[in-house]
Structure formats: C-alpha cells, structure tokens
Amino acid sequence: MPAQLSVNLNAIAMLRNRRDLPWPSVTGLGAIALEAGAHGLTVHPRPDQRHIRFSDVPEIRALIDDAFPDAEFNIEGYPTQDFLALVDEAQPEQVTLVPDDPMQPTSDHGWDFITNQEMLVAIVNRLKKGRMRVALFCDPDASEAQIAAARTTGADRVEFYTGPYGACHDDSEKAANALKDLQKTAELAHASGLGMNAGHDLTVANLPALVEVMPHLAEVSIGHGLTADALEFGMAGTVKRFLSALQPQDD
Questions:
Q1: What mean pLDDT is predicted for residues 113-138?
Q2: CB 57 within 8 A of CB 45
Q3: Element (H or E) spanning 140, and its range?
Q4: Right CATH number for 4-245 from 2.60.40.10, 3.40.50.620, 3.20.20.70, 2.40.30.170?
Q5: How many CB atoms within 10 Å of residue 232?
C-alpha cells in the first residue's frame, strides 16, 4: 500500500497572514486537497501564530468531520501545556511531537529519545489515553539505541526528518548517501515495531527514491514543496502529482 499523503497547510496560512484578509483560505484549499485524494491535513501551530492560527484548528477539524470523515487531522508541535490543551480540544487522529524551540523558523532535528525519555513517556501516555496516534520526530541517522529508546516511549510511529535529503536536490551523490541513512534507520524502526512517517523538503522529484528505500513508509507530510508546486499546477493537480510520486515503481 502506498504511503499516505497529508498536506501541511502552514505555508498557505503564512501567505494569508501577510494581509488582514481571509484569503487564501486555509480550509478552502484544504478541502480542495482532500477532494483531490489527499489522505489528511497537517498543521504545526506555533506560539506566535505566524502561520497556522489557533482559530484555524477547530475550523479544520470541522471541515474533516463534516465533509471528509475518512480523512485524518495531524497536529505537530512541541508539547507545551498550551499545545497539549489544543490537541485535547481538537482530538486529531495523529499528534506529531517535535523538539523545536518555539522561535525556530521550521523543524530541523529529531528528538534525543534517550535524554528526553521520561518526559516523552508521560506525554505519549497522556495522548494515547485520548485515543490519538502519536508520532515522534526522528533524526534520519538515529542510532539503534535511539530507536530502542523511541520504542519504549510507547509512541506508535516516528516521523523521519528528511531535510538533509531534501537539501541534496542538486547533488545526486549526497542524496544517495542521505538515502542510505534513511534506509538504515527505517530498517531499525521497522524491526522495533515502530510505524514510519516522513516529512520536510519532500518533492515530486525526490519522493520515488525515498519510497523505494522505505517500503514500510506509512505517511508523508508535505507543505512547502507542495504549496510551491500548487502555484504552478493548482492544488488539485499538485496533490495528484504527489500521489503519483508515492506509488511504488515497477522494476
């Protein structure tokens, strides 16, 4: 089964926030993406609300519940008390915990699962009591010990940070090396019983190679590259292009 596509709406929200106007519509474009075949929507609300606003979250929840009941809502963020209260209210199907400083422009590293194990165990347990799937942001070259520690948190999945791979868009040798790291760590995660997601700087061009080395990949969350393509191909056409790129290639 191909990896599912969750469309990250942050870049759309950031464009909207340049003006005190309601367009582009976050929910409107989210609906177009789901209608075109995306399996879910992702947001990463930050304390300064520089892209997704807290008020967007219930609107996206309502969109999925009312019009796309088979779709999933994924909320990413650092587990502050405010963030946890937000997800308790929204009840997303999946919560992805990231180790970001609130002021970071974007996510750029995974958890140190060993150092943060006690905290993560408590938070994962709280979220799973709310019947939410939990994914933890993970470095693409995480060690066997780190993956073992991730497993003991009780999380359902890890989400591989694919930024280093995406940054190699103009260097095929570096891209091949980055894929080797991802493949090795994915094999460790699969062997440990963890599900796998991936996200950051993924594109139509680099997805097929990623899918090939990560055959157990469950989901990709894509925002920046997908939104950039949507300026050229439209949201519906772009979603279809990304879904095609996720299909395993015949030998």
A1: 97
A2: yes
A3: none
A4: 3.20.20.70
A5: 8
Nearest one of 54, 100, 56, 93 to 78, comparing CA atoms: 100
| Distance (Å) of CA 80 to CA 76, 83, 119, 148 | 12, 5, 11, 25
Annotated catalytic, 109?
no
224 classed as catalytic: no
Tokens of 229: 């393509």
Statement: the pTM of the whole predicted model exceeds 0.85:
yes
Q: Which of 51, 72, 76, 159 is catalytic?
A: 76
Place of tokens 């699969």: 190
Token pair listed for 89: 């209210």
**Rounded Cα gap, residues 208 and 206, in angstroms:** 6
- Give residue 71's identity as a one-letter amino acid code: A
C-alpha torsion 222→223→229→231, nearest 10: 160
Q: Which of 44, 51, 159, 219 is catalytic?
A: 44
Residue 44 among the catalytic residues: yes
The per-residue pLDDT for 100 is 77
DSSP summary character for residue 118:
H
Catalytic residue among 39, 72, 200, 219: 200
